């Protein structure tokens, strides 16, 4: 096999630009998904039962249908009722919708891991409800949730590759473009794979450092 990487490496800035779009999608979808997850988790724990059933239905639907199908619906079905979304917006909303459900499950598991006796002990010591959340629940929950949240972010970053199917020129999309122009598919996707690996390794270490120093949470990297 004769491989020629030089034409692909000459276009490295073009691919890195796509990687930057991939990261933007992942970060925004993760941030908005966290907001949705916090609202859903709060309703599940403290809201009315009927609202909790709607939240559970959302989680079941979002986690049991492919993210690609959810984005497909937003991109192709909404224009039928007069709602037009740009490819980037459709992918972002779809990724956020999907992420919110998974992050809600992670947060729910984190809160469920708090032992009742710890809360009762704080109540015996005279802690207020706010103090119990601040000093007992949150420190425990953050440590439990940080690792699965970090893993979810990595999964979401790699999942942005499906955005190329809707015309978003993120890393995979630009790799397709480069491959079709140069007819060097193996070389193009090999370079893209290396970029994805670098992104995930850097993100993993950055999240591990943040978790270690901000929340004293171990992620397995350190």
UniProtKB/TrEMBL annotation:
The chain crosses the membrane at residues 20-44, 56-78, 84-104, 149-168, 188-215. GO terms for cellular component: ATP-binding cassette (ABC) transporter complex. GO terms for molecular function: transmembrane transporter activity. GO terms for biological process: amino acid transport. Coiled coil: none annotated. Residues 19-207 form the ABC transmembrane type-1 domain. The keyword Membrane applies. The keyword Cell membrane applies. Keywords: Amino-acid transport, Cell inner membrane, Cell membrane, Membrane, Plasmid, Transmembrane, Transmembrane helix, Transport. It comes from the Bacteria. It is found in: Cell inner membrane; Cell membrane. PROSITE patterns: ABC_TM1. NCBIfam families: HEQRo_perm_3TM. Belongs to the binding-protein-dependent transport system permease family. HisMQ subfamily. This is Amino acid ABC transporter permease. It comes from Pantoea phytobeneficialis.
């Amino acid at each position: 096999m004769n491989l020629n990487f030089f034409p692909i490496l000459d276009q490295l800035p073009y691919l890195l630009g796509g990687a930057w779009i991939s990261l933007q999608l992942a970060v925004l979808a993760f941030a908005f998904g966290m907001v949705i997850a916090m609202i859903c988790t709060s309703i599940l724990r403290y809201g009315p039962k009927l609202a909790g059933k709607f939240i559970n239905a959302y989680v079941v639907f979002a986690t049991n249908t492919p993210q690609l199908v959810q984005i497909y619906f937003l991109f192709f079905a909404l224009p039928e009722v007069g709602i037009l979304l740009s490819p980037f917006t459709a992918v972002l909303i779809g990724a956020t919708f999907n992420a919110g459900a998974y992050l809600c499950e992670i947060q729910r598991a984190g809160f469920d891991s708090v032992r009742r006796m710890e809360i009762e002990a704080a109540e015996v010591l005279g802690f207020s409800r706010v103090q119990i959340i601040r000093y007992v629940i949150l420190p425990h929950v953050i440590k439990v949730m940080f690792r699965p949240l970090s893993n979810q972010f990595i999964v979401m970053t790699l999942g942005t590759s499906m955005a190329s199917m809707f015309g978003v020129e993120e890393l995979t999309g630009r790799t397709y473009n480069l491959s079709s122009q140069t007819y060097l598919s193996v070389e193009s996707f090999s370079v893209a794979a290396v970029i994805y690996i670098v992104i995930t390794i850097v993100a993993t270490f950055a999240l591990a450092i943040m978790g270690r120093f901000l929340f004293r949470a171990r992620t397995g990297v350190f």
